[in-house]
Design brief:
The protein has 409 residues and is an alpha+beta fold. The chain folds into three domains: 127 residues, Butyryl-Coa Dehydrogenase, subunit A, domain 1; 99 residues, Butyryl-CoA Dehydrogenase, subunit A, domain 2; 146 residues, Butyryl-CoA Dehydrogenase, subunit A, domain 3, CATH 1.20.140. 47% of the residues lie in helices and 16% in strands. The chain contains eleven helices and eleven strands. The strands form four sheets. It has a four-stranded antiparallel sheet, with helices on one face. Strands 3-6-7 form a three-stranded mixed sheet. Strand 4 and strand 5 form a beta hairpin. The relative contact order is 0.12. The structure holds 3-thiaglutaryl-CoA (TGC) and flavin-adenine dinucleotide (FAD).
Length: 409
Amino acid sequence: MHKAPVELQRKKNKYFFMKTDLFEAPDYYLLDDLLTDEQKLIRDSARSWVKKEVSPIIEEYYEKAEFPSQIIKGLGEIGAFGPYIPEEYGGAGLDQISYGLIMQELERGDSGIRSTASVQSSLVMYPIWKYGSEEQKRKFLPKLATGEWIGCFGLTEPDHGSNPGGMLSNYKDEGDHYLLNGSKMWISNAPFAQVAVVWAKNEEGRIHGLLVEKGMEGFSAPEMHGKWSLRASSTGELIFDNVKVPKENLLPGRSGLGAPLSCLDSARYGISWGALGAAMDCYDSALRYSKERIQFDKPIGAFQLTQKKLAEMITEITKGQLLAWRLGSLKNEDRATSAQISMAKRNNVDIALKIAREARQIHGAMGISNEYPMMRHMMNLESVITYEGTHDIHLLITGADVTGEMAFK
Ligand code: TGC
Ligand code: FAD
């Protein structure tokens, strides 16, 4: 009989499964040879940290629909907050491939954990570093790098998701401050963030970024409930009711829709690696199960249809790894285009979702249990394929890039 890698624990009259994390990363094309010793060291320490700090608790927090806030300090310590932000501002000063590898390992644990790190790094620290004043960088970045402060990124509104340029959030110049009104929805980390990077229009209709801090009068961030996806991540609204934002909290370096979209480039790049982590976890579990589970007197991995599934999975993972690595190399040389990033995000999330579904099938009924990670990854990836630009929006970005014809509107 197949023995699941779990110990049953009795806790507050409920049973939770303590998983033994047996993950071994697939590397079919020997891609480790393309990594530097430093990149491998960073990847391996993130992997060990996830095995120790995330895997044993993630199912419990997923079930409770709660972000495990006790891991924030550790995320800061492994350099997951602002990996590529210069050390003088508290970041780890790493290259883009190292950033990608950290996202891969975190999402191997859970997409919600990677979400928290990619929002903090690419959607909060990145705009402050790129477009902030020196005072803003010194005030916010070191605290965000350690996790003492958590940030969130408010672009999406109830009526403006794929079309953020239509946003209604706005601010007026009131002499010694700005007066901000409007709302944002589906904002990762919002309920417990100390600072929100908020995109809103000025009186001329031009989009700017404002740093809205917890405690400012008229600002609230209620949690959104009822998610069947990304349950170990906290998602909320941002409500601005005549919030007085000090003038020094405007990001001075860039305005227009291109400013938030450039942050998305960085986060989408991280997701292209992250999704591979989820895919690798599902594949690893399916491969192990297929060797252990006996039906008709044979391991199910000996049947041709199981092998077809596994062969397709490892092929897609390998192609995705090559895409992410090449994109990381282009990013290190500052040559990656937004459209190239978009393609990698779309492709790698899409294959990860398909792999999660196929891996679940290989586990039969066990595949729907929280003893195995596939259902959790699969449900998470339904968010990942939607946020940071839906799959179809990314198809249209590639379509526009190759034809020169914009089909969005
Ligand atoms: P469009 O006219 O194409 O462009 C407006 C201006 O932006 C420039 N631009 C970019 N700049 C930098 N990076 C990019 N990727 C850029 N894409 C466009 C463009 O050149 C133009 O500049 P300028 O100077 O000429 O004004 O804009 P559009 O209104 O037609 O929209 C284009 C579209 C649909 C591709 C874009 O709006 C889009 O990407 N929509 C998807 C929205 C989205 O991704 N939202 C994500 C919200 S944040 C999130 O989901 C976080 S989840 C995090 C987590 O938990 O992990
Ligand atoms: P819509 O834009 O209403 O799209 C609905 C459908 O219509 C989609 O299938 C879409 O592809 C399609 N569609 C739309 N326009 C077109 C078109 N022109 N052509 C063809 N098809 C089209 N946002 C933030 O700002 N910050 C965050 O931190 C954040 N975190 C999130 C966390 C979670 C868990 C989730 C689920 C979302 C989060 N988002 C966040 C919001 C996310 O970015 C949006 O959900 C996403 O951009 C899509 O917007 P929408 O949900 O309004 O869908």
